[in-house]
Amino acid sequence: MANKPIVDFEAIKNNLSNVSKPIQVLNENAEITDQEIFDTFSDDDLVEFMKKMVWERALHEQTMNFSRQGRMGFYAPTEGEEASEMGTVLAMKKQDYLLPAYRDVPQLIQHGATVTEAYLWSRGNVVGNKFKARSMMPQIIIGAAYVEAAGVGLGIKKNKEEDTIAFTYTGDGGTSQGDSYEGMNFAGAYQAPVLFIVQNNGFAISTPRVKQTAAPTLAQKAVAAGIPSVQVDGMDILACYAVAKAARDYMVAGNGPVLIETLTYRFGAHSSAGDDPKRYRTKAEEQPWFEKDPLIRLRKVLEDKGLWSEEQEDKLVDEYKASFKEAIKEADAAPSDKVSDMLKRTFEIPTPEMKQEIDKFEAKESK
Amino acid sequence: MAKKTYIQAITDALDIVLEDDPKTLIFGEDVGKNGGVFRTTQGLQEKYGEDRVFDTPLAESGIMGLATGLGLTGWRPIPEIQFMGFSFEAVDQIAGQLARMRFRFDGLKNAPVTIRTPYGGGTHTAEMHADNLENFFTGIPGLRVVMPSNPYDAKGLLISSVENNDPVLFMENLKLYRSMKDDIPDGKYTVPLDKANVVREGNDITIVAYGAEVNEALKVADTLAEKNISAEVIDLRTVSPIDTETIFKSIEKTHKVVVVQEAQKMAGVGAQVASAIAEGAILSLDAPVGRVAAPNSVYPFALGEDIWIPRAKEIEEKVNEILNY
């Protein structure tokens, strides 16, 4: 008997951890770690990236205030994920399709929904879903968007829509759903132009990333479907944008899907509905991530270049928050839903039985 | 006009909708080159090309997600779930996603998807191939459920289903696939998605049935006719929605009713029909509503089907019980 095993499974397993370092342009000390990518951005670009992150942070803060005042429905906090969310969505073009999950409301707004519509979606008013953007409403069933995105990607390809792809998002928990694999596998099989984005923020509510899977990275989940994938520093908006744009460019040239895993962190709770992170993580665990705050590093670069100031940022935040206060006023004025309308929109033509129900409710509603 | 089986009638309908509307797409497991495991899509890939008729990876949720996404980008998908028991794999995509599309977007977006799937007992298939799952799927608002009982209806109902902008679950009865032939008109015709069909007129008792049980009910009506009892047989054709008006009209005439289904008795189509009668037509009755349904056990393995599925004998017994009430 030879000492060498017939198959060295342990070596194969260990080899799975041999992955490239996540792509990064700016590290947490605001040092440029990839000059080549950094040089692709003009000063105006850098300022624009900063503005978008300040906008998202302001949206988060003001929306959480509204939530505490009881003026919101379900809303998923986004603080900490600005680089990942804004960096990727800024690579989208208007004609692209978006299939967001529930933490991706800021991207939905960037893609064309109004803040008022987003607030109405949160409250559960159908008016909020009638946005003009080429987007699904935020998906609640994580994983479901991935299979639908494969269909949208194939539809784009069959329509021969030029310079168009589908963007879809899920989180670290979402990659455990069978649907996320089915979606990737279908998109791979049809070489459909879908950018699968996994925002790995470390936790699925309370369950840490390490308990979701034995896979060393979530990006690797694409490998089995024959899809190229990459990890990105999700606290670095320059890296997130550069990689998302490169992925989009690759796909519009006629290639199939790509997966990007952004390594990010949810600074706050899972949702506005009573989650308390203190139950599952310590301050000591959180602190290193707070220091990676995506706004800090870009702010420092901009300040060093003389392109940004505290007063300028404060002024912007005030402007943004004022616009969100206007948006919620508009949301307050939106018509409330009616049962007769719920029945009417279930089928294109109501069934005879539903017609009777509609009549009954319309009679009540007109009183 | 030509004699055609249920399968041939379906192929005929698919050929017509592929020809008529360049946005229709057929896809599923083995539907392309192989023409489907029952040859329902035989020759269609050859005729319309791989862009319109194509195979999918083996994953039902993926198939349905593909359909939803294609619907959103302007296509009119006709996915096939190879056997209905496999649809459990796709319940979120059907119930949680597809059926809600119009509701979510207030009609701005919709999902004009027709899901074809074979179901039904009596052919001794492997487990999870024959289950009558309409009881489950009719409980999903936003989804139409169609169950043709014969080749003529199969063609007309399928064309209506594809042309309809709501998602439709089109259930094809395995037992009927090759066991009966009808004269099928050439070319396009439609059968409405909300009208039951009085397949036999009668005055003494109403038998409400759908799918393969319609033929069983007709056999019973023949037997009763020999005893000078005239039974009216109603074929529901669609089980969501259910055309109660036609049922009520019949009961006003016969005053007696037996509701027949192949599926288990619990919480399903027969229960819905019986409760609709209780709500809307009970004063027309002079006997209780009779029900014939499968026992509330798990669907049997192949050999168990013969003693489990209610057929003409059980219908006749129940009809006699109600007639002699």
From TrEMBL, chain A:
Class of the enzyme per the UniProt entry, highest EC level: oxidoreductase
EC numbers on record: 1.2.4.1
Record domain Dehydrogenase E1 component: where: 50-338
GO molecular function per UniProt: pyruvate dehydrogenase (acetyl-transferring) activity
Keywords: Oxidoreductase, Pyruvate, Thiamine pyrophosphate
Needed cofactors: thiamine diphosphate
Swiss-Prot/TrEMBL GO biological process terms: branched-chain amino acid catabolic process
Pfam family, one: E1_dh
Catalytic activity: N(6)-[(R)-lipoyl]-L-lysyl-[protein] + pyruvate + H(+) = N(6)-[(R)-S(8)-acetyldihydrolipoyl]-L-lysyl-[protein] + CO2
Domain of life: Bacteria
Annotated InterPro entries: Alpha-ketoacid_DH_E1_comp, DH_E1, PdhA/BkdA, THDP-binding
Function: The pyruvate dehydrogenase complex catalyzes the overall conversion of pyruvate to acetyl-CoA and CO(2). It contains multiple copies of three enzymatic components: pyruvate dehydrogenase (E1), dihydrolipoamide acetyltransferase (E2) and lipoamide dehydrogenase (E3).
Subunit structure of this chain's protein: Heterodimer of an alpha and a beta chain.
Protein name per UniProt: Pyruvate dehydrogenase E1 component subunit alpha
Organism listed in the record: Companilactobacillus crustorum
From TrEMBL, chain B:
Keyword Nucleotide-binding among UniProt keywords: no
Superkingdom field: Bacteria
Pfam families according to UniProt: Transket_pyr, Transketolase_C
Coiled-coil intervals: none
Record-annotated Transketolase-like pyrimidine-binding domain positions: 4-179
Cofactor(s) of this protein: thiamine diphosphate
Sorted UniProt keywords: Oxidoreductase, Pyruvate, Thiamine pyrophosphate
GO molecular function, one term: oxidoreductase activity
UniProt protein name: 2-oxoisovalerate dehydrogenase subunit beta
